[in-house]
Each structure stands twice: as structure tokens, then as C-alpha cells.
Design brief:
Helix 6 packs antiparallel against helix 7, helix 9 runs parallel beside helix 12 and helix 9 crosses helix 14. About 45% of the residues are buried. The chain is of the alpha/beta class. The strands form three sheets. The protein has a six-stranded parallel sheet. The longest helix has 24 residues. The chain has 21 helices and twelve strands.
Length: about 450
Amino acid sequence: MKEKIIQFGTGNFLRGFADYFIDSLNKQGLYDGKTVIVSPTDSENVKKINEQNGKYHLILRGIENGREICEMTEINSVSRAVNPYRDFRAFLSLAENPDMRFIISNTTEAGICFDDSCSFDDKPASSFPGKLTQLMYKRYQKGLEGFVILACELIDDNGRKLKDCVLQYAEKWGLGENFKNWIKEKNRFCNTLVDRIVTGYPKDEAEEIFKKSGFRDMLLDTAEPYNLWVIEGDYEQELPLKKGGFNVIWTDDVSPYKKMKVRILNGSHTSLVFPSLLCGVETVGDSLKDSLLNDYLHACLFDCILPTLGVNTENMKFASSVLERFANPYIRHLWRSISLNSVSKFTVRVLPAIKDYYQKNENLPKVLVFSLSCLIKYYKDYEPNDSKAVVDYIKTHDTGEILKKAALWGEDLSFMTEIVNESLAEINKDGIREAVKWSMS
């Protein structure tokens, strides 16, 4: 089987996502290609991958369509791994293979950045876009066709920003106008949106799993069943992911799907986190088992968030999947972890829904504003995980001043002062659980 895909990223996510997809396509006879994994850093994972000849197991477990599943699959779509820090020549030689067509990357949110200290003569350049430029220049020198690049980093416009960085390096390194034109005309940098919780190596269960599989798998990976991959472009004929049964959407514009994910999935998390913590509930799964918090989540999601997006089949389907994912018994998702930097998260994930609801209905969505009141209550009374400046300001100012502070929220939120104060009064008067009931009345 020929090597056709270059993957930047040795971590759990792509091995539990794209590599699993490719393996399934190969087994279904829909594709005939393997992936070479490139380490963006000087990673020990390269050694593990090569020691196991790319073979590993993925366990999918969770709730899907109301049914609890737990399935283990042997993954054989990875041929080998290359560490450009240890073998730069082997890295560049990937560009010389005419069968290589797709590049997939997941180098963390910080991976797509321009580092001015990188030099073309570095072996390799330290930044991921720098390495990619070196690889593409070798491809260009060989007179070969370009790549389809699927950037999976969790930032807006990931493909476009990666392309901008590559063009910056081409300019900085003086690689010529012809090369820059080749980048633009012969390659496609696709914006994408990815969604799957990949929980990685199951340390506490590994030995028992090894006994069952008969293979001591140091690359063992675990993930939820749910998957979503939205890709700007349409390469289904070359990479038949939809035909293979995966939740892949080829589109001209990722942004509506990004909005759907941020408001429904992330917005639900951010709305529920502080009511849950104030109730003494530690995990997402436990919140869904709590009838009061479960009702509150449904009120936020179905009464307030979904109406701002449009209650259509796609949004309803995604909302239902989110509830199943939150209830996954195999994932212990701590609210304390989710609560990191909640002020900035609130402005991106929940505030737009509040404003859209207000504009549409000419009144504020009480349950969503209540989540903001719980955030303020928690920040004042406990030790939240946020920047010291943000925490100190909330602890030392009254509600009106907090909401008016545009530096916190990106704008003046004074229009919510009355209902936030009313919510806080309800919490202080009758306790958090009675106040949650009040918010839904």
C-alpha cells in the first residue's frame, strides 16, 4: 500500500480521528493509502510508532443513538514516523514522492504561527509553518503537483493562516516569485473544523486491555464515538470520507458550522459550569444525572441557544449528540478544568446568544444571564482559574462596575445589571438550587 498522506502531529487526537478514518476507508476498499507521521517537535512518540510499525489500537466508547458502545479497532493506516530533528533528509524526501497528495496537521493552537527567527537553512525550521515551507520548496524543485492541506488546529481560519505563514517564509527566505505562485496555484489550504473528544492512553486500564488484546500497545488510544470534520473544499472523490460513513461535511464555508459548535457545545458547557460548581457537582456527567441541572441545561440549550441559530434538523441533531456526549460514562470531564479562563470564554460562547436572543425577543434570556450571575458569584467567593487581573477586578468591584468593564467582556454589559443583581439576590436569599429553579420560571 502506497504512502499518500503526510501528517504533522504524533499525538492522540489525529491517531483517534484522521488515522482511524483512513484505516476504515482502507478496510472498506474505498482508499488505498497509508500515512507517514511527522513529528513537529523532537518527540519520543516517533520511536514508539516505529517500534510498533505504525500499528496501534483505538477504543471508541460512549453513547451513540441512545446505545452504550465500547469497541476496539486495530489501526494499520500508519506506515512509519519521521523525526525531522533526527533525520532531516528523510523528512524532505517525503516531498519527492509523487504519490503524496494530502497533508493533515494538528500542532496545537500555537502551532500555526510565524517565527521570525527561523532560517531556511535550519534542519529543520523550528516552527511548523517553517517546516512545511521547507517541505513544499523541495516539492516545487522536483516539479511535482502540490498538496491538499487539511489544517486541524483549533483556531479560526486555520488553513488560511497556515498559508499566510508559508507565504511569509517564502518572502523572508527569498525563495522567489515562481515558488510563491506555485504555493497559491498548485496547493489548497483548507479551513477545517474538527470535533471529537480523544481521551488518549488509558493508563489505569492499560494492563487489563493488553491481556485482552494480546498486544502490549504503548500507543493505545481512546475516544468517544462522535466525530465531525467540516472541510472547505470537496475532495470526496479522492478521499471518500462521507461514503466511508463518517460525519464529514465538504463545504464552501466552515463558519456556520463553527458557530453551531461554539454556541451549542461550548456554550452549553460555559452556561452549565458555574451553576454546577456552586451546587457542589464536580463533573459534566454528574450534572446530567442531577435532574435540576439537567433541566437547566435543557432550558439553556433548547429555549435560548437553539432559537438564535435556527431550529433546523442539523442543529437539532447536533444538540442531541451533545447531550449524549455530555452523559458519556467513560469520560470524567471535570468542571474545574472546563472553567479555565471563563470570562473570555463567556464572551465568545454565550454572550452572542444572549445578544441575538435579546434582539429577536426584546427581552433577556433569564437562564443564560443567570449563568453569568453564577460566574460572578463563583469568582467573588471562590478561587477561579483565570488571570489575576480579571479575578482581582471581579472580587473588588460591584456588579454594575463589573458588567460595565469593557476590558472584561469586549463591550459594556450594563444592560444586564438589573437581572444579574436579581439573580445574585435569589442565590443569596434561598441558595443556589432554589435560584436555579427561579431562573427557569
